[in-house]
Amino acid sequence: WRPRGVLLGHLMEHRKAVTQMAVAYSGDFFVSASADETVKVWDLRRLERDVAFHSQLTYAAQPGGRITSVAAVEDDASVASASATGSIHVWRVDVARRRAAGSAGGASGGPEKYHGVIGLRQLDPGSGAVLDMCSWGPNVLLYITQHGGVHAWDLRVKQDVWRLPCPPSMGLTEHLICEPCGFPGNPVVVPGGGGTWLMTGGSKGHCRLWDVRFQLPASTWQHPTGASINAMAPALAPASRLGLSHDSLADLAGVGAGIGGSIGGGSASSGAGGGAL
Predict the structure, then answer these.
(1) Which of 44, 73, 133, 235 has the fewest CB neighbours in a 10 Å radius?
(2) Pairwise CA distance, residues 77 & 239, whole Å
(3) Which residues lie closer than 8 Å to 104 by C-beta, 6 or more apart?
(4) pTM to 2 decimals?
(5) Burial 3-27 (b: 16+ CB within 10 A, else e)
(6) Distance of alpha carbon 27 from its chain centroid, rounded?
């Protein structure tokens, strides 16, 4: 969809429910994860001009359980996919690019042909199903497991660098969002990057804001009805439209939707002292 409500395409290749989507850092393609145990790659540049639009590639090397989450990582063509069996795969879409018109020195334009998928690395934390993921800058992947809370996997050293324990009294932590920011190689502000804050949501309606500098919870809210947090997203609109004053601009504003149909929100901002709420 375009923001003005115009339908651009109706994509129906998955055989079961679509669980999550993510856009590559380049903006050339997006991926869709599904309960049919596959991830499909879709070319965004061809979406409007191709009458018979179809996926360019299918990643099916993660069998045994539904794909629960996908995230863009590392560079403009790499993707991480997580499974209900507890595995995480990092892979790269092999794309041949055409030369941009009038460019010098072999500068490339958009994707010309999708050749296949290159597997890069795999991780099996052994803590149950992986429920959600979010990139924390280009080289760190945050993920939630069924039994182990929030983990930070440094893709360069191939191991977790820190973990945030989530108390069982607040229910199962199922969703997370990261502070939007840019990083080298991708200066555009994106929902996921190595900032200061992250927010988690769980099955008993709790939204918890974490200060990653100290790996401690800064504040906690609960959904008014106690309903499970079904989805979360960073609120990227201007501060005035979010009901925030201009002298307290939010670094992270989150919106959590409960199964009961209502929506709640919370925000964090950096003050002179390093972190005012």
Answers:
(1) 44
(2) 32
(3) none
(4) 0.80
(5) eeeeeeeeeeebeeeebbebbbbbe
(6) 14
